[in-house]
Amino acid sequence: MERKVLFELPSLYRDNFRVTGLTFGSGKKSLCIVGNTRGNEYQQIYICSQIVRKLRELEAKGRLCPGHEIMVVPSANPYSMNIEKRFWPTDNTDINRMFPGYDLGETTQRIAGGVFQAITGYEYGIQFTSFYMPGDFVPHARIMDTGRDYVDKAEEFGLPYVVIRKARPYDTTTLNYNWQIWDTKAFSLYSATTERIDEESAESMVESVLSFMATEGMIQRRGHQGYRSQVIKDGDLVAVRPYVGGMFQSGIRINQRVLKGQELAWITDPYDGSVREKITSPVTGVVFFVHNRPLTYANTAVLKIVPGE
Amino acid sequence: MVKTIASAAMPVDETLEIKKARYSPQGRDGGKRISIVTGIHGDELEGQYVCYELARRIKERPECLTGTVDIYPAMNPLGIDSITRGIPAFDLDMNRIFPGSRDGAMTEYLAAEIIRDLMGSDLCVDIHASNIYLTELPQIRINELHEKELVPLAKLANVDFVWVHGASTVLESTLAFTLNSRGVPTLVVEMGVGMRITRSIGNQLVDGIFSLMRELDIWSGEISGLREPIVSSDPDEVLFLNASRSGIFIQEARHNTWLKKGESVGKVVDPLNGTVLEDVISPEDGLLFTIREYPVVDEGSLMARILRSGERQGD
Fold first, then answer.
1. Full DSSP string of A235-253
2. Containing domain of residue B243, as a range?
3. What is the model's pLDDT at position B315?
4. Among A60-64, A127-131, B123-127, B239-243, whose mean pLDDT is lowest?
5. Inter-chain contact A90–B96, Cβ cutoff 8 Å?
6. At what angle do helices B46-60 and B199-215 cross, to 10 degrees?
7. Backbone angles phi and psi of B190, in degrees to 5
């Protein structure tokens, strides 16, 4: 493994801001993996660290296939993580809304630009990212629909789902979108959690990435057949929204099969504990997303279900 | 008449309400309609004074009102109350969620209701106050896609500068883009600085809004002397001065002054070592229309914008 600083920015009173790449093998630029771009994406940096640990083991055993360069960038934003802030410390901008970046622009545009320059040219790109709504997800791969067709490659992760997302205007400045524009087949991988380390989900995600790498001939490894992925569009997910806000209580877990009409959650009154709303499942299917904060707002999705018998 | 245009129950004993005040001739709706919007970003407060002063002057001369004026002072009430730029709890920029969706999450629902209420306006003015980092000369920013319809209106708004900028996909999620695309001409004003009120420029814009109202036959009263703005639609005319080093920015030039090439705009200094890290100088003759207000800069932070010009205009 070779450690290299990909981008560096001096600060007045803090240590330099550094984005570091850990490279395995040499040859064709086969795969780049990026961890957190936000400061609260702890699960995302953790998964990268576990991938690096596994790759070092494989390297020591001589099981990295020759001719492939694999680079892992565990953190594109150590500064925000060190102060437990989601976005950029000084101006609260989101690095994952600054791609492809601009080397003469604002600070986070320069960071995005510097990082992007170092991570382009790879055949595949994996970003571990998070959704702006707080909640737990069924681990899945997402592809932004830019007209490029490589869904079959996403199935190689063996994750339960591959979600095709229709790009909205604000998506056009994300890493996933811009990687694709610059001809990298990009996947956003969503683990179960963001701010909390979930060992089981992290381990499963590491296995998925290693499985993908084995299928693509980058490493020699057996095991983990994973799931036969179901490909869905983000519009296929059925969002369940309460009519009222209040305290959110639910015993439902992600990946759980539910029946139409089944009680899934309750919105209770924060003062007297009475039930304001019983939330029942509008469809039969599998729970894909569950809100994970104590309070919820009215009309805001607290569950998402993949419909299907 | 004050009306709630959108509301949502909060989890604990509170209802979020977005309100507008309507002023019509003798209490009746009639004639054309102008909508004044502000507070999409909770840390931008210059529009608060504009809304107050506009209402005060209308109430002082109600006989001059010949159309409808709708004032929406707080599109993001939770943000204004908590000194938060975006929508608190969601950490979302409210000006990136339009047109919203009536079936969407609370934030999207509010955005959709706002658009629904603004539809039918003959003109909308969306007042912003830069951010906490930069002070801006009163200006109107126009997406090049809407240049033809909006520049003639912007010239009547008593601002110093009209900046026609390039189209960007990301900006399609703004309130102004949504309204302009749906046939409601919308002018985006940027002026002053975040978290502060500057009465002089507030009064300047209020004069401009009365001028627009007069143009639309909404106001029959007197209009005070208006300024002719500089209009720039050439991207090469605007120079961006970004910090080449992280440090503390000390202003030297005065905002809204014409600078000569080589004249000092400010310095980036290192207080620990007592050294100057960067002399910030004007690369061309031009108007200093944006200046850094918040002293701490990272490499890349914007310190100034200068409108390059061969000869002085609008002095």
1. GGSEEE--SS-EEEEE---
2. 235-308
3. 40
4. A127-131
5. no
6. 50
7. -120, 130
Best of A170, A243, A292, A293 to mutate (most B CBs within 10 Å, chain B): A170
CATH number of B109's domain: 3.40.630.10
Residues A243 and A290 in one domain: yes
- Is residue A100 within 8 A of residue A116, CB to CB? The reply is yes
Chain A nearest-CA residue for B131: A91
- Give the residue on A whose Cα is nearest the Cα of B248: A12
- Give the CATH number, domain containing residue A123: 3.40.630.10
Q: Compute mean pLDDT per 10 residues along chain B, 315 residues long, and list them.
A: 93 94 82 97 97 98 96 97 91 92 87 98 98 96 96 98 89 94 98 97 98 97 91 93 97 96 98 98 96 97 90 46
CA distance B232 to A223: 63
Res B311: pLDDT: 47
Gyration radius of chain B's alpha carbons: 20
The dihedral through the CA atoms of B103, B73, B9, B89 has a sign that is positive
The per-residue pLDDT of chain A, averaged, comes to 95
CA distance A9 to B298: 9
Query: From CA A99, how far away is CA B128, in angstroms rounded?
Result: 25
CB contact residues (below 8 A), chain A span 218-237, against chain B = none
DSSP track, chain B: -EEEEEEEE-SSS-EEEEEEEEE-GGG---S-EEEEEE-SSTT--HHHHHHHHHHHHHHHSGGGB-SEEEEE--SSHHHHHTT-SSBTTTTB-GGGSTT--TTS-HHHHHHHHHHHHHTT-SEEEEEE---SSEEEEEEEEEEGGGHHHHHHHHTTS--SEEEEE---GGGGGSHHHHHHHTT--EEEEEEE-TT---HHHHHHHHHHHHHHHHHTTSB-S-----PPPEEE--GGGEEEEE-SS-EEEEE-SPTT-EE-TT-EEEEEEETTTTEEEEEEE-SSSEEEEEEE-S-EE-TT-EEEEEEE-SS----
Tens-place pLDDT, residues A172-222: 999 999 999 999 999 999 998 899 999 999 999 999 999 999 999 999 987
Structure tokens at B268: 């980036």
Find the CATH number of the domain harbouring B262. 2.40.50.100
- Rg of chain A over Cα atoms, rounded to whole angstroms, equals 20
Residue of chain A with shortest Cα separation from B295 = A90
Range of the domain at A87: 2-233
Q: Do B8 and A297 touch (CB under 8 A)?
A: yes
Residue A69: the pLDDT is 98
Report the alpha-carbon distance of residue A129 to residue B293 in Å, rounded: 34
Cis peptide before A100 (omega within 30 of 0): yes
How many whole angstroms separate alpha carbon B18 and alpha carbon B209? 22
- Residue where one domain finishes, among candidates B213, B231, B249: B231
- Which chain A residues have a beta carbon less than 8 Å from that of B268? none
A197 touching chain B per CB within 8 A: no
